[in-house]
Fold:
Amino acid sequence: MAGHETTSGLLSFATYYLMKNPELAARAQAEADRILGYDLTQAPTYEQIHSLDFIAQILEESLRLWPTAPAFSRGPRNAPGEVIGGKYFVPHGQSCQVLLPAVHRSTAVWGADAEVFDPDRFSTEAKAARGDTVYLPFGTGARACIGRQFAMQEAKLVLGMLLQRFHLVDSEEYQLRVKQSLTIKPDGFYLKLRQRSDSERRDGASHGTTPVAPADVKQESAVTSPRLGRGLQVAFGSNLGTCEGYANELAQEGLRRGFDTKSVALDEIVAGLGSEPLVIVCSSYNGAPPDNAVAFRQWLGEATLPEGLPYAVFGCGNREWTNTYQQIPRELDAGLEGKGGKRLLPPGEGDASGDLDNAFRTWKTAFWDALYSSLGLTMESIAPEQPQYSVQVLEDEHPNPFAEVYEATPLVVVENRELQHTDLSGRSTRHIELALPEGADYRAGDHLGVIPQNGSALVARVASVFGFTPEVRIQLHKRSQAAGALPTDQILSVGTLLTHYVELQDVATRHQLGLLAGYAENTAQKKHLETLAGDAERYAKDVKAPNRSLIDLLEEYPSVRLPFAHYLELVAPLRPRYYSISSSPKASGRILSITVGVVNGPVRGAGQGNYSGTCSNYLASFERGQAVHGFVQQENRSFGLPASPSTPLVMIGAGTGLAPFRGFLQERAFQQKAGQTVAKSLLFFGCRRSDHDFIYSDELSKYQGMGLVDLVTAFSRESETKLYVQDRLLEHGADIWRMLEAGGALYVCGDAAGMAAGVRASLLHVVAEQGGLKPDQAESFLDRLASEDRYLLDVWVS
Structure:
C-alpha cells in the first residue's frame, strides 16, 4: 500500500481538481512547458522536477483536502490518563483517532474558504507564515512517512509529464464521491485526455503562460534615453577580454545615461582623441601594455592633449606580479595628468587574484558621481536597464560563423595524440599538429589563437534551463543603441547561438548575482543570492573558488526566472584561447604544433560535479583531416629566440609550459645541423611523475644527447617532500649565473600564481647569492634583464 495506493490516490484527487479548474490547469501546463520543454523524447532531469513549484502546490493542496492516509492515532502515555484541551479526559489505554480532513479544514487556520481548492495556499510565503504543525498529510512524530520526498517527487514527475502531453477533459461532468479502504480516493472517477499539439507545447515552452506572436515582437520599440548632447570617450587595453568587457559595460551605461559613446581599443583612439571626457580601462600583468595599447602608450609620451581633458583610469592587475602590479594603468594616469589632463577621481585598481569585479563596481559608482559633478549634471532621467535583445522564435536558420570576427582561418589537423600515460595519471595532454594556409607564417615562441566551441552537452543543459531544445530557431532584435556582439535580425538555432557566440562557463560576478536575486521568486533563495552578492568573502568561497557560472546558479536556484534575453545580455562574447606554439617553422615548415592540457575534473573548492575546459576538450575531440579555426598572434613578439644562436638560454617551465621551449630546441637543432655555432641551453622542467606526465621525454633526451641542452627535472610526486622547478633553480644557481654573465636570456613559461611567482623568488635568491647583491639590487638586476628582453615571461593565471 505505502507508496502505491497513497500516491495514486493523491494523483487522482489532483487531476480531479485540475479537470474542474481549467485556469489552474493552464497555469500548471505553462510551468510544465517552460521547465520540461516541448521535446517529449527528453527525459526530465531531477533539477527540472525539483523546479515544478506550482505543480507541487497543486499536490499539497490536494493532500490538504483529501489526505490519502486520512487519520492517525494517539493515546495517553501515562496512567491514569490525560485531559485534552482542559475539557476531555482520555484514560490510559484508550486510543483516539485524529481525522486529518477535519484538521485541514479548520477555518481558524485556513480561512472562511477552507473548503475551496486553492494551490496558492502553499506558496513559499504562505507556508512560512502558517508554520508546519497544522498540515499533517504524511503523519507526525517518529512514525511520520519516511517516503514523503520520494512520493512527492514521483507525483510531480507524473503530473508534470501528463500536463506536458495532454489536456484534461471532463467528458462526464463527474461529481466527486470518496471511497475508503485503507486509503481514500475518488470513486467512479473517469476523465478523457486530449493530446496537445507540437505547436501548443512549443509556444508554452518558449513563452510561458502568454505566447508572444511575431507581430508582438515587431512592435517592440527601442529603449530610449534622454540625450545630453555630450560625448564620452571609452577606451580599453585588453588582451584576454576582461578590460574590454568592463569598457563595453561603461559605454552601454553611458548610452542609457544620455551620453554619445562607444568603446574602442586604446590604439584606435590615438588618431581621433577628442575633448570629451575620457575613461580608460587597461590591464597590466607583467609590466608590458596589452597588445592593443602599445601604440597609445608610445603616443602619449609625445602627444598634446586637449586643454583640461577630463579623464579617469581603472586598472586590472594581479598582485602575483608584485613589482609590476598596475604599472601600465598608473603610467597612463600619470601621463595624462602630466599632459594637462584633469583627473576626475583617483585611479581604480582591481586585483584579479582577489575580488576584481567588486573593485570595478565600487569604482564605477564613484566615477559616475565624479563625472556628473564635473559637468554640472544631476543623475536623473536615466533609462532603466533592460535586456539588449528580444527573442523571437522562428523556423529557418542562417549560419553566421563567429570566427570571422578574429579573421581566423581553417587549420587542418595533421596529428592529435596523447602525451601522458593516462591510465596512470588519470589526466590528459594532447600534442596537436595543424597545417597553416598558404601565406601564413609563425615564429618559435608565438601563440596560436583558437576559436573554441561550447560542447553539445553544456549547450543542451543551458538551453533546457530556459525551456528550449538546441534545435529551436530564434531571431534576435536590438532594443537599444548599445553595441553588441550577437547576430541580430538573423535566423539561427538556440544551439548555434550558444555553441559559437557566448561564454557559458565564466564565473558569475557579484553584479550578476545581484541581478539574479531580483528575479528570484523564492524569498529564501533571493536572500541567499543577495548575501553572495554583498559579502566578498562568501562570494570568493562559494562562487569564485569553485568557478560557478550563471547556469550553475540558475540550476541551483530554480525560482530565479531570468529571461533568456537578459541571460544573453549578461554572458560575454566567446573569446579565443591562446596556446604557446610548441614547434619551429625552420624544422616543420607550415606545420605548427600546440600542447594542450585537457581540463576535466572535479570542481574545486565548495563546488560539486565536474568541470570541463571549453577549448581544451573541444580540441581534444578533433581527428586527422578535420579543421579548427585559428590565427597566429604576432602583435607582441618579444618572447622569441635571440637573434644569435650563440646566446645561452635558461628555460624554466612546468607541465604544458614546456611548449615554447620544445620549439626553441627544434630551431636550435636545425641551426646546429646547418653548421651554425649554437650555445648550450639549460632547461628546468617540472611535472608530477616521470612515468605519468613527463611529456616529450624522448625528444628532450635526444636534444640532450646532441649537446644542445642540459635537462634538470623536478618530479613533485615522486618523493615525500614535493619538489618543484623553483627548488631545482637554487641547486643550480652557479650554472644560471654563469650563463647570465655570458649574456644569456631567461625564459619562464607556466602558471603565474604558483609556478612563476615561486620561480622569481628563487631567481632573486640566486642573483643575490651568486652576484653578491642586496635584495633591492637583485630586484633591479632582474628588472634590467626584463628591459633588455633577457628576462621574458609567458605566463597565465590558472
Observations:
- The first strand starts at residue 71 and ends at 74.
- The chain has a mean pLDDT of 87.
- Residues 450 and 630 are 4 Å apart (CA to CA).
